[in-house]
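sorry for the late reply, my laptop died twice this morning and i had to redo everyting from scratch. anyway the thing you sent over, i finally got around to it. pasting the sequence first so we're on the same page, its 252 residues, then the predicted structure underneath. double check i copied it right bc i was rushing
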Amino acid sequence: MKWQRFVSVPVFLAIILLGFVYYVTIFIFLEDWLGLQSSAGSLNALIFTLLASLCVFSFSICVLTEPGHVPSTYVPDVEDIGASDQGSTKTGVQGRHCDKCSAYKPPRAHHCRSCRRCILKMDHHCKWINNCVGYRNYKAFLVLLLYATMATIYSSIVSGMMIPGLSLTLGTLLGWHIYLVIHNMTTIEYYEDIRAAWLARKSGQSYRHPFDVGAYKNITLVFGPNMLKWLCPTAVSHLKDGIAFPTTRDNS
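ok and here's the structure:
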């Protein structure tokens, strides 16, 4: 069933775009500039082929990996059940109920209208991978952005700035998600925090994102404690159940 996600127009277009960039970079510009039979041409072709291969691999992982769904047996702690969407518990998280799923959802989970279910630590639904970006494939998504940005910048340099717009777009998106990782936020939480901070200021209080436990720890929560595995999209053994997360109160 997971392979059916590849049967999608946006996914097909993404694959076509990657193939087009690869063909033009290798067989038109590199061949014309250095010649693929030369040592310099062969080296550049090898480097770009490696980047393109890493893009394809990371892209496939993003498409095929389940982002994480709420277990049917999930029930919040007793003290969380009575909490409203605006109320917080002693752990700084909220007990919430999804009307569409008719079930409780844990902290950081949100209902996806496209997937028609609640996704753990949902960031957004990405049509280009025909999948949600959530708890279990967020690392793969970030690694994909990194490799894709590197590949398009490399192609732009080799081909005389053929695709600067694509490089800029991917680079901006990568930078945005690096910011979110450093602050341990999702895209959804970022916009929720804007409102929460406004309400806090209105009442004369200060606000801090409850899951921001420090830049380095925030990074390791996504990429893992072993830096040697940070760029491997399948190295996710550090991920737990996606139900509970450390908060600022845990460190206080």
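Residues 39-64 form the longest helix (26 residues).
thats about all i looked at so far, will dig more tmrw
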